[in-house]
Design goal:
The complex is a heterodimer of chains A (296) and B (310). Chain A has 296 residues and is mainly alpha-helical. Chain A has 14 helices and no strands. Chain B folds into two domains: 39 residues, no CATH class; 242 residues, MetI-like fold (Orthogonal Bundle), CATH 1.10.3720.
């Protein structure tokens, strides 16, 4: 296994710091050339989306590669939203509703359950907890066939609630919230009880406001997962009025006639909100990813 | 002075009420959307259930034997094993390399971390679009064909349309690699930060030089738990691949286009259950896949000593 960059050092502290041989600087230069090359490669797909979204069909399909549109085609945005075969406006609206509902309720339900499992003295608590953990054994995407049968029985096929409600119950998030509340200082909670608060009051007034960090971390991950989900919305949202943005693009992509600038513009408007969310919330996303890795 | 305590404020009664009220949404939700489907799905898998989701027309293990003797289903299992064999080691190596490069960089660390991590925000559908129409378009204007042309090749390759040679693997694997490597890099970065610096300093005192040796004898062993988590998470995700196969190879219908080249189990189950409306065989296939994932996970856990404390 080749490990570029390892030749220099494994840490930021190294022996003989005061005197560094020329080789050290050469390797540092090599490391940054490599990092920048990899970085540009990782950014290249973003460049592809943006540049093609603003070109004409002729520029994209030309034998001479165009790095940038000769004239920026802003009307591609208007064309996309006016295209009756690709209901992009409806798709974005559906995606936004689904992602926001998931963001709020997945974290709320998980934190309520996590608090009850961590802090409320109840005899059957461990049994209930094991029951919830049991669901982690089953890989979620695989069970789409049986879940489809249940949602179909409940008349949820081709409805927005049918897409969003089955995804609101996360045993994994419950587990993480329980861990978090177990470590919450008991003194604060006891002080709350002496002030005459009920368990609900303590949860609502003391624990919930103090768990905004973990809420944001898990919430933003669920928001991203929900916005980007494909298989389940494809199975449930069958008519165009129930398509999410991902389904709109997929339908458009796999259709026979293809208008490339509109297609890339569709990718741009679907990806842009998430890139913005990502850049603003990156600290919380990193935290959330770390939490999911520890117990993964 | 005595304070009259209403019955619901008595602590055990109140605790019981609070417990059930707070846990009710989660329990009801998991009950309806996880436990019920599993039970019903199991019953469906033993029923003749074509164009219907009702159970009762029992056929024993026939759906299971049908699926296991179905060459398309067996081929789909082979497809996903091949895909996993490529994507898991590649993701592991690349995310570890990126994590080490970013971790040991003396400046610009947050920028590089963001650049490698940001594809996580992009959906498989959008990435499939870019890979299919932008990079690996089979026409001369596709980027990959353009690069071949710049290097003097007159060939125009049909990247996703031919079985021999199977270039479509390159397309599918690089697409997922780009999307998920940043996620695993973050896990490795977390692992790297937890390594005690004094271990390295002690090894230098002992005469070790920084580089490959310390990486092999200190860094890798200390990343053991992270490595196991990365492999298992990546493996479970790979076995459930659907989006990029459907969108890169698929045509307007689930069965048209190039899906026949590489059809993973979930795409096949989608065709059986949603396309042909055969919920009995679809459910049986789902449980075969669940069993495969659980068995592979346990085997891997044994190999890597999952849960062992270092």
């Amino acid at each position: 296994m080749a490990l570029p960059g390892q030749q220099t050092s494994a840490t930021s502290i190294e022996p003989g710091r005061g005197h560094r041989p020329v080789g050290f600087y050469l390797l540092e230069v090599g490391r940054y050339i490599l990092l920048i090359a990899l970085g540009l490669t990782f950014l290249f797909p973003f460049y592809m989306i943006v540049s093609r979204a603003l070109m004409t069909q002729a520029e994209i399909t030309s034998f001479n590669w165009s790095w940038w549109p000769a004239q920026i085609q802003w009307h591609n945005v208007k064309d996309l939203f006016n295209d009756p075969t690709a209901p992009m406006g409806t798709g974005l609206r559906n995606s936004a509703i689904i992602a926001i509902v998931t963001f709020v309720f997945q974290t709320l339900f998980a934190s309520m359950a996590g608090y009850a499992l961590a802090r409320i003295p109840f005899r059957g608590r461990e049994v209930v907890f094991s029951l919830i953990l049991l669901t982690l054994m089953v890989p979620s995407a695989v069970t789409f066939v049986p879940t489809y049968a249940v949602v179909s029985k409940l008349h949820g096929v081709n409805t927005l609630w049918g897409i969003v409600v089955p995804t609101l119950f996360s045993a994994f998030a419950t587990f993480l919230f329980r861990q978090f509340y177990l470590e919450f200082p008991a003194e604060i909670e006891e002080a709350g009880r002496l002030d005459g608060n009920t368990y609900f009051g303590i949860y609502w007034k003391l624990l919930l406001p103090n768990s905004m960090g973990i809420m944001a971390a898990l919430g933003v991950l669920s928001f991203i997962a929900s916005w980007n989900a494909f298989l389940w919305p494809l199975v449930i949202g069958q008519s165009p009025s129930k398509w999410t943005a991902q389904i709109v693009i997929s339908t458009y992509l796999t259709a026979q006639t293809i208008n490339l600038p509109e297609l890339f513009m569709g990718a741009a408007v679907t990806a842009a909100p998430l890139v913005i969310v990502f850049l603003i919330m990156q600290r919380y996303i990193v935290q959330g990813v770390r939490m999911s890795g520890i117990t993964g | 002075m005595t304070v009259r305590v209403p019955f619901w404020r008595r602590s055990n009664v109140e605790a019981n009420i609070a417990f059930w009220v707070l846990i009710a949404p989660m329990l009801i939700g998991l009950g309806v959307f996880v436990f019920w489907p599993i039970v019903w799905g199991l019953l469906l898998s033993f029923s003749e259930a074509r164009n219907s989701i009702s159970i009762g027309h029992w056929v024993g293990w026939r759906n299971y034997s049908d699926m296991l003797s179905d060459s398309a289903f067996r081929k789909s299992l082979l497809t996903i094993v091949i895909f996993t064999a490529f994507i898991v080691p590649l993701t592991f190596a690349l995310s570890l390399v990126l994590a080490v490069l970013v971790h040991t960089a003396s400046f610009g660390r947050p920028i590089f971390r963001t650049v490698f991590f940001i594809p996580t925000a992009i959906s498989y559908v959008v990435a499939s679009l870019v890979w299919r129409m932008g990079f690996f378009n089979g026409l001369p204007y596709g980027f990959a064909n353009m690069v071949l042309y710049w290097f003097g090749s007159s060939k125009v390759l049909d990247w996703i349309g031919t079985a021999h040679p199977p270039y479509y693997w390159l397309v599918l694997v690089t697409c997922r690699l780009w999307l998920q490597v940043g996620f695993y890099m973050i896990l490795f970065l977390a692992g790297l930060q937890e390594i005690d610096q004094s271990l390295y300093e002690a090894s230098w005192v002992d005469g070790a030089t920084p580089g490959w040796t310390t990486f092999r004898t200190i860094t890798l062993p200390m990343l053991r738990n992270t490595s196991v988590a990365v492999i298992l998470l990546n493996f479970i995700a790979a076995f459930q691949a659907f989006d990029e196969f459907y969108n890169i190879l698929g045509g307007g219908l689930a069965t048209s286009g190039n899906v026949g080249l590489a059809r993973p189990p979930l795409v096949y189950l989608y065709q059986v259950a949603i396309g042909q409306q055969d919920y009995g065989r679809g459910s049986a296939g789902a449980f075969i896949l669940v069993a495969a994932i659980i068995i592979f996970t346990i085997v891997q856990g044994r190999i890597f000593g999952f849960g062992r404390r270092s």
